[in-house]
Amino acid sequence: MQTGHYTIVETAIGACGLAWMGERITRFRLPEHDRAVTERRLQSRTGADAPSEPSPAIARTISKLQRYFEGERIAFDEAEIALPRVSEFFERVYAEARALPWGETATYGEIARRAGVADGAQAVGQAMGSNPLPIIIPCHRVLAAGAKLGGFSAYGGVVTKQKLLAMEGVHFDGGQPSLPGL
Known about the structure:
The strands form three sheets. The chain has a three-stranded antiparallel sheet with strand order 1-2-3, sandwiched between helices. It has a two-stranded parallel ribbon with strand order 4-5. A two-stranded antiparallel ribbon has the order 6-7. It folds into two domains: about 5-70; about 90-170, Winged helix-like DNA-binding domain superfamily/Winged helix DNA-binding domain (Arc Repressor Mutant, subunit A, Orthogonal Bundle), CATH 1.10.10. The relative contact order is 0.13. Helix 4 packs across helix 5. The protein is α+β, with helices and mostly antiparallel strands and about 180 residues long. The chain starts with a strand and ends with a strand. The longest helix has 14 residues, at about 55-70. Helices cover about 35% and strands about 15% of the residues.
């Protein structure tokens, strides 16, 4: 296994983790209950013993992540990513999720249709649950049928998902999103 790099990113919501190889981001971890847990998970995924100094390109993404968590409207489409070996369908799903702009949502079923599989909502849920790059691939913007929250595999579960969406102006009232301007 080739050794990757990681760093801990201090954000307004806590210590996140970012891993990369070369100039491509390979992992992003939302804060865990403890900074040490976040770091151990990145170490196990990268093979690195200690945090590394990021390159200028990685540092730009770090800055954007920090600004995102401060509430600034940020897009991560220029961030270069390297996905682990995933199916072609998962790649299409991640591309569709990545195309969702700040404050916009889509259901698992909508993402499945956009990715070319009309009855693939469950598979989209599996892809979102194993997303190695939350925020950069904004799986929190993908909702269950009926525009319900659905699941979220990061620490804090659906509460974290709801907080991320609220930060982007999507609020839930009785289980339904209330979108700004609608």
